[in-house]
Specification:
330 residues; alpha/beta; TIM Barrel; six-stranded parallel β-sheet; three-stranded antiparallel β-sheet; 13 helices; 12 strands; 14% strand
Amino acid sequence: MSFIRTFHGDIKPDELGLTYSHEHIVCRPPYWVEKNEDDLLLDDKEKSKLDVLDFKNLGGRAIVDATAIDYGRDVQAVKEISQETGITIIGTAGFNKSFLWSAAIPDRLKEATGEYQTFHEWIDASSINELADFVIKEVEEGLEGTGVRGGQVKFGTGYNRISPLEEKTLRAVARAHHETKAPLHSHTEAGTMGFEQIELLRSEGINLEYISFGHMDRNPDPYYHEQIARTGALLSFDGISKIKYAPESTRIQCILELVKKGYEDQILISGDTARKSYYKHYDYGLGLENILGKWVPRFIKEADQAGFDGKGLIDKFFIRNPARCFTFKK
C-alpha cells in the first residue's frame, strides 16, 4: 500500500494536490536564537498562517515543512495552521547540518535526547543505530513526543564538506528509511556534495529514486544536475524568489536543461522561505504567494517559448512529482 504521511494522518498520493516541496512555517532554531538572529526566527503563528492562506488562495493544497529537530520545530503551531487553513502539511524527521549542532538542546527535547547539553554532544555520543531508532520513532510514533508523525526523513551536509557527525546522521537516516520506507530528503549546503552523499547512500543500499536533493539551484551547474538526475533521484529547486543567489533566468534555464534531457519527472519546486524578511506578513517580503502568483506564469511563458508545454510541466513539478516523491512505498 502506498500513502503519504501528513500532520493529520495518512492520505492517498492522489489526494496531495499542488505542493510546495520545501518550506519552513513556524520555527525558532536554537542556533539562531543564541546568535540573536531575529530574521531567522519564524515565531508568530498568526503571521505564518496568513502567508499559508495566501498560498491557498492561489490554488495551493499542500506544503512540506522541512524543519528537523535541530531547527526549532513548533509542531503544535504548524498542526494548528494546517487545521485552521485546510492546507495539508508534511512533517520532517531527522537532522539538518552540523554547524547548527553547537546550540543547546531545548528543555522540551531532553526526554527524547537524554541529558546532553548540545546537539553535537548527543549525536557524538550516540551510535548510528541509536540515532536511526530515534528517527524511526519520530516517523512511527510522532515528532518530539507528539502524535504528529514525520512524513519524510532528512539529513544534511556542509559547504564542500561532510563532517564525521554528518556522515553518522546520513547513515542513521538511511537506515531509518529502510525500516520505515519514508521518503528521504537531503540538505546540500549551497548545492554542494551531492556526489559524495550519493556514494554514502549507495553504501547503505539506498535506492536513489526515493530521495530528493535540496537546494540544487544554489549550484546552477547543468552537468552536475544531469549526473544527479541520472541516478533516478529528484532535484529540488527550492530557492525560487531568492535573487541574491541567482536571477530567476538562471533557475529557469537549469530546469529547462533538465527537461530537454528528459528529466521533467524528477523536478520539485519551492522557496525554502525561512526568514521573516522573505515572508509577506512578517516583514513585507515576497511571501509564499510569489511562486504561484508570479514565478509560475513566467515559467510557463518561457517554457512555451522554448517549445515545451509550460502548463504540463507545472502540473508535474507541483502535483505529480511531489505525489510520487513523498509517498511511503510499503
